[in-house]
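Example pasted here:
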Amino acid sequence: MALIELPNVFIGQATNVNGPTGCTVILCPQGAVAGIDIRGSAAGTRQTDSLFSLHRVPQIHGLLFSGGSAFGLDAAGGVMQYLEEKGIGFDVRVTRVPIVPTAILFDLSLGDPFCRPDKSMGYQACLNASDRETAEGSVGAGTGASIGKLFGITQATKGGLGYAVCHTRDGLTVAALMVINAFGDVLDGQGEILAGARTSPTSATFANTWESFKQGNIPTHFIVHNNTTLGAILTNARLTPYQARKLAQMGQNALARCIAPVHTLFDGDTLFALSLGEVEADLNLIGILGQEMVREAIIRAVKTADGLGLIVAWKDIQDT
């Protein structure tokens, strides 16, 4: 479990290990200014229009990450139902409409492809939400995540969900929640592969996706086209919508440093940024800290992931 340590933030998970699949919600009952940056070419989203300039809606009230590919977008309905029942949302006089941008990842190939997050699972994630701590690893949207699909799911490594947070002496808090379901390999800070494509279904040796590509191992089968790294940078700094979007863009640099290759035609890499407070801080500083937290959260996602008896995880490789 990781401590959240941010105001106005509740994080909830709903997990179905029989899928395996799940969803993760970040609730912002008091609202949050948000931005988005999409770098992958296979993204799946809902209600992200509200994050672009000139949109009438000034804030969001929740953010949802879900497995189940496009089917998983249905889980957003449960989050909206929960928030509406709490009287949280954009006031349209007759009711309040919760603004809940949603992004999905593809996890249908690891287990039962007909087991998907739905409205009830999204609602349950809200019921499970806490402002104190959040689970990591093979939970929520990270339950069915995998890493390194150059040679298909049988030679991949387990992905997952990670969270990291830091504070400055001036009262600034920056955190990142990341869900890793990447086509490429995940690297540590020294350039070593932590998780990725393996040389065979029974091997603990990594094939090195980057080098394999250069040697002509270009994927052609459909299943490698379904990967996504999803995440959010969260801060108690006061940001405008433009600054939040810039923060999301800056955060993508961390993906480029620890996922290789990244932002491919096979990935739906999407990063959000949420402003949840009133602390005055330099955007460049927030961006630098955000990148550090994104990288740390990615590594934590790998190291806390469980193979669930279906696929090799980082911790399994350490035991060999």
